[in-house]
Write a structure and sequence with these properties.
CATH topology of one domain: Nuclear Transport Factor 2, Chain: A
Radius of gyration: 12 Å
Structural class: mainly beta
Oligomer: single chain
Strand order of the largest sheet: 1-2-3-4-5
CATH architecture of one domain: Roll
Number of helices: 1
């Protein structure tokens, strides 16, 4: 998805997704975007794409504030947050 989206969501660190099953996984793109925008209200989505992180399929959501959020497609957990001074890895996924 390249078009910018802006959805006003409430504040909070929502980390569990929900949504209809897709080829990518149980957490669809719209649900992953909702999780990212709830975490960073007032931002817009610059790009969303699928990828791999820590051996799991993720949605990689890039926001207008420079933050990239990787969300597990299987369960909606936030796997990693990076960019714009953010550097956080979910300890449940970080095997280093």
């Amino acid at each position: 998805m390249s078009a910018e989206m802006n959805m006003d969501m409430g504040a909070g660190g929502h980390t569990h997704g929900h949504g209809a099953a897709t080829e990518a996984g149980p957490v669809d793109e719209a649900s992953a975007i909702q999780i990212a925008l709830e975490r960073y209200p007032g931002t817009t989505v610059v790009e969303s794409k699928t990828g791999m992180a820590y051996g799991v399929q993720v949605w990689d959501i890039e926001l207008s504030n420079g933050v990239s959020i990787e969300i597990d497609q299987a369960n909606g957990e936030i796997v990693e947050i990076s960019g714009a001074g953010e550097d956080w890895e979910n300890p449940a996924y970080d095997n280093d």
